[in-house]
Amino acid sequence: MTRFRPSGCIFAVPFTHRPAVQLLREIWYLMQKDFRLEWRQRAALNGMLLYVGSTVFVCYLSFVRGGVLPAPAWNALLWIILLFTAVNAVAKSFLQESRGRLLYYYALVRPEAVILAKIAYNAVLLLGLGLVAFGAYSLVLGNPVQQPGRFTLVVALGALGFASSLTLISGIAAKAQNSNTLMPVLGFPVVIPILLQLIKAAKNALDGLDASPQPLYMLLGLNLLVVAVSYLLYPFLWRT
To answer: Do 141 and 64 contact (CB within 8 A), yes or no?
Structure first.
């Protein structure tokens, strides 16, 4: 039996001879640890919610009073808000982990479990923040979306895409000295292809067009590619 003791909590991970099952167990308990830490340090979560609310309010003051916001501008502005929210939320993934805690994880779990747990946790976090931002944004700036279900699917794929790409960038930046500066510098070029596909897929849902689902397939393919690259490359980063 393997025991975790991160941040005063004890997690018992039953050992199994099946590597895939053991990997899933490690991911699950690491995600539990991250959720408990987030709940204990609610100031960071409240800060992200405040950032979303203040950004939406500034957009309301800037655009609504000047007239109706066109649908393309509405779409682009929403994804800019979600992008900067994702950067602020994911940046702390590895930056908040002390060197001693990472060394402790090094002795207990595999690096693949650490990176996949971080990606899964950040995807859930960004999905929640994205839905909150979409709701607040629609409330004050109107909701021109013709296909809400498809648009919600695009938001979910965007949360996974931002989480998978920015989490690996956060792990790389945590190894450098100027990590706070390095995170946005390395992150924005990586998320640009994902952002372009998100805007295209969201525009189809916004207009209510029965267009080709190719942007959704591209988003899913990019997300799986980034997750696979993170799974393969993070063990080398872990040993540095």
So the answer is: yes
